[in-house]
Amino acid sequence: MFEQISEKFEDIFHRLSGQARISEENVSDAVREVRRALLEGDVNYKVARQFTEEVQKKAIGKDVVKSLNPGQVFVKIVYDELVQLLGGTTSELELSQDIPTVVMIAGLQGSGKTTFAAKLANHLKSKGRYPLLVACDVHRPAAIDQLETLGQQIGVPVFLERGATAVDIASKSIDYARKNARDIAIIDTAGRLHVDEEMMAEAESVRSSVKPHQILFVVDSMTGQDAVNTAQEFNKRLDFNGVVLTKLDGDARGGAALSIRSVVQKPIKFVSLGEKLDQLEIFHPDRMASRILGMGDVVTLVEKVQEQVDEKKAEKLEQRLRRNEFTLEDFRDQLKQIKKMGPLQDVLSMIPGVSSAMRNATIDDKALVRIEAIINSMTISERDKPHIIDGRRRKRIAAGSGTSVQEINRLLKQFAEMQKMFKTLSKGKLGRAAALANMRFR
Predict the structure, then answer these.
(1) Cβ(221)–Cβ(227) under 8 Å?
(2) Cα 260 to Cα 105: distance, rounded to the nearest angstrom
(3) CB 3.0–4.6 Å: which of 70, 120, 176, 396 could bond 22 by disulfide?
(4) What is the DSSP letter of 91?
(5) d(CA 220, CA 229)
(6) What was the pLDDT predicted at 441?
């Protein structure tokens, strides 16, 4: 996400850092380039103009002009303004003391409303809540079936009533939630391919009927400025509480994300990445600004690790590493945990400095799948003692995993090198490395 804007910003900062001192002239040049980068990144022109005016105003201040490190100063100014543009502070979903808290999901057809409703239910369930999904999209073919299937996948009940109106379904779902100890009702409403009166009238009727505590507007970030225009229309009619950006991983520009909050003055609450039901992030303006500027996002990375790592397994693995007993079975378990964290390119982009270094690199997530397939095609003894894998065994493993003997050779060579590294670490250095690996933000 934001690759285009990030690349432009990095180039601007690099050129400015080569200046001996910051001045009104080089600031003006840099600000002009920033405005161009934002516009090319599909940011609303009014938002881009206001943003660059604020940056220029602060960058030519007396204290800044005296600075001997113009590049760093300008980056800090742009970062601070980006954080404010994106909302300033994190705005999480507000839950009511009433039971159930009613959350209404609105947006155009194809924006990802139904998938987001399931992701939100899964997220809330992981926090110890008891959500209920409500199927109120009675117009789109198979919409109810889709929500029912997603509910089964995450173990969350779905309230539906085929043939009934959206208003009737929404109203009855509240009583159902109370009787079945469901503390949050997530109402998935219908959308259209474009804003029309029938859709908006139905959404308003549902809102009047159930009086939701939160209305979330779901928008496909890949639609660019159309997303901003749609957000304005929905906000006029529904006065929603927050925005959800979907498909942000498929948009290299990201201009909609930088524009919507400023245009409608409503916070971005969630970012939906990918199709998996656990790929949902709470939106943090400061972390997103850091990622846009190529500074990484270590806090989110650590949170992802904490969510996926089993601490008991981690302790056992550390003991095995100390005894130099790391096997291909252990390696496969680690790969599974990495895969759960999301697309590898997204994970690596959270590490400071890696984003720009791998700008033109292609990260193949399927490589992890192939490695796992290779290890799965081995016997237990082969995983435990890879040195016994001769030519005949390699051919069998390649045939069983659908790969080539060359790939088997490459994996075994890399694993042997990894074992040598762990052997070195186990001789006194592992404690320090393990301590770094197990760092926690408290």
Answers:
(1) yes
(2) 17
(3) 70
(4) -
(5) 12
(6) 36
Question: Does some domain include residue 156?
Answer: yes
**pLDDT of the residue at 431:** 45
Half-sphere exposure of 122 (CA within 13 A, CB side): 19
The letter for the amino acid at 215 is I
In this structure, the answer to whether residues 162 and 216 fall within a common structural domain is yes
* E-state strands within 146-225: 158-159, 184-189, 214-220
Q: How many domains does the chain have?
A: 3
CA distances from 253 to 67, 113, 222 (A): 32, 22, 8
In angstroms, the CA 189 to CA 216 distance is 11
Tokens of 227: 């997303």
The amino acid sitting at 428 is G
Check residue 395 and give its pLDDT: 93
Print the domain residue range for 277: 101-289
The verdict on 235 and 153 lying in the same domain is yes
Domain boundary among 289, 309, 344: 289
Kindly give, in sequence order, each residue whose CB lies less than 8 Å from that of residue 394, ignoring residues fewer than 6 positions away. 405, 408, 409
Q: Does residue 405 sit in the same domain as residue 333?
A: yes
The two three-digit tokens of residue 146, written as one number: 């889709």
Coil, strand, or helix at residue 104? strand
Cα angle value 127/129/130 (rounded, 5°) = 145
**Distance, CA of 321 to CA of 432 (rounded, Å):** 13
- Are both 279 and 313 inside the same structural domain? no
Are 144 and 134 spatial neighbours (Cβ–Cβ below 8 Å)? no
Find the largest Cα–Cα distance for the chain: 74
Domain annotation covers residue 359: yes
Of 426, 275, 431, 411, residue with least CA distance to 331? 411
Q: Residue 25 CB: number of other CB atoms within 10 A? A: 10
Write down the pLDDT at residue 215: 94
Q: Give residue 273's pLDDT.
A: 78
pLDDT of residue 145: 92
What is the reported pLDDT for 75? 79
